[in-house]
Amino acid sequence: MKKKKYLSLMVFSLLLFTPSIGHGMHIMEGFLPSKWAIFWAILSLPFLIVGLKKVNKVLKADTNKKVLLGLAGGFVFVLSALKIPSVTGSCSHPTGVGLGAILFGPTTMTVLGIVVLLFQALLLAHGGLTTLGANVFSMAVVGPLVSYGIYKLLKKENKNNSIAVFLSSALGNLMTYVITAIQLSLAFPDSVGGFTASLGKFLTVFAVTQIPLAIVEGIITVIVMNLLLEYKAEGVVDLETIQ
């Protein structure tokens, strides 16, 4: 019982002590041309629809799963608010989506991701409403898909769980920024080298800050996951029925 209270306290603490750093998250408000803003929003919609169905199932489940879902959401909110300016119109930060993708699957994180991005856009001036679709696609669609796929692949090959968690979280983070670089390059191709030259520039700039951040996120995710596995061993949480 004490362990469950402690786990609930973790969720509350993540939501309460969230840092508000910087003036933007991912691609900022109004930065993308309207055609690209609409394109990425439409592309994200199917994942959101599937995710809503999965979240609904979790909310109808026992309190244990609801607490874990809250923890996953709080984890995303805290890490994605830690921003380091990276390039005009965007920034670098952890994403936190790997943990929830491992526990609940990738589309569930699409729902949690859009909630976090909306909250930060409206109340913290991080990101924006017009660029919400693009930010959701990079952080809450592709990132979780990569994290989930890598974790499942490594576990299938009987790799150490901590290594699987670390790589899935870190690479999911990096792929988020590969997609962001692609989005910016498509919207603003280089005047001479076009899309390819622009992509090379964005990826180079992002790599300076994002690679260390991805490593840190991987380590933090491993720590949280090991804590959850400890609770599982003590019968406090049930991870077997989640993905």
UniProtKB/TrEMBL annotation:
GO cellular component terms, semicolon-separated: ATP-binding cassette (ABC) transporter complex
Membrane topology recorded in Swiss-Prot or TrEMBL: Multi-pass membrane protein
Compartments it resides in: Cell inner membrane; Cell membrane
Function statement: Part of the energy-coupling factor (ECF) transporter complex CbiMNOQ involved in cobalt import.
Molecular function terms, GO-annotated: cobalt ion transmembrane transporter activity
Pathway(s) served: Cofactor biosynthesis; adenosylcobalamin biosynthesis
Main location: membrane
Entry similarity comment: Belongs to the CbiM family.
Subunit: Forms an energy-coupling factor (ECF) transporter complex composed of an ATP-binding protein (A component, CbiO), a transmembrane protein (T component, CbiQ) and 2 possible substrate-capture proteins (S components, CbiM and CbiN) of unknown stoichimetry.
Alphabetical GO biological process terms: cobalamin biosynthetic process
UniProt cross-references to InterPro entries, sorted A to Z: CbiM, CbiM/NikMN
TM annotation in the entry: 38-55, 97-125, 132-151, 163-182, 202-229
Organism this protein belongs to: Wansuia hejianensis
Keywords: Cell membrane, Cobalamin biosynthesis, Cobalt, Cobalt transport, Ion transport, Membrane, Signal, Transmembrane, Transmembrane helix, Transport
Protein name per its UniProtKB record: Cobalt transport protein CbiM
